[in-house]
């Protein structure tokens, strides 16, 4: 199997988006060769690290590190912008492994309509990119027996969070992962979730300091101007995290 790397759904910039551009074509060619080797689908699942790129592995290891740092603290886990549910499912499996007898839940928030930006942000990501089916994600959760840990919330993150938390005023988090990028969405998430983040817990930011998501950086600068922003050091994304002090 051959073919060029697929077009990316975000605007090509001149800074962070080009950091690893020189490796992209070879990486994609490697994927095509792996897919042409006749590997059984079950093997792709059971032996996933043998096939995943090291940058993808770094992403999930960063989220694992974030989870371990947050583990001693009270609260649930939230992901804003779950797309196909990958990271939400990862967190749920970590809860299954490390907190089998706690009440910890993983809350996945998305409107499942994909990207949509206003003003200058509209040109940064292709409209509708990262859309997924909420029913498909729920089925993926159900077939793995994780309904007792995961709660999927189909809502508009930019508008519906205040009403959501009015209905569920008790909710407290130890880890919040923002994977949404747009200014109004990140702003709404920080305004509603930061007060509910337990001191010692983590706010993990997927796109801070990245040219394809300037709104995320803007919202953090406005709402959390004095926070110490840290990097995992080995992962390309998430780019940053903040420990609530």
Tag the structure with descriptive keywords.
245 residues, alpha/beta, Rossmann fold, 2 domains, 7-stranded mixed beta sheet, globular
CATH second-level architecture of the largest domain: 3-Layer(aba) Sandwich
Task: Note the gap between the termini.
Answer: 51 Å
Shape, please? Answer: globular
CATH topology of the largest domain: Rossmann fold
CATH class of the largest domain: Alpha Beta
The amount of beta strand, in percent, is 5-15%
Give me the strand/helix succession: HHHEHEHEHEHEHEE
Tally of separate helices:
8
- Strands across the major sheet, in which order? 3-2-1-4-5-7-6
Assigned CATH superfamily of the largest domain: Vaccinia Virus protein VP39
How many domains comprise the coordinates? 2
Instruction: Look at the structure and give the mean pLDDT.
Output: 96
Range of helix content: 25-40%
Give a short account of the largest sheet. 7 strands, mixed
Low-confidence stretches: none
* CA-atom Rg in angstroms: 18 Å
The strand count comes to 7
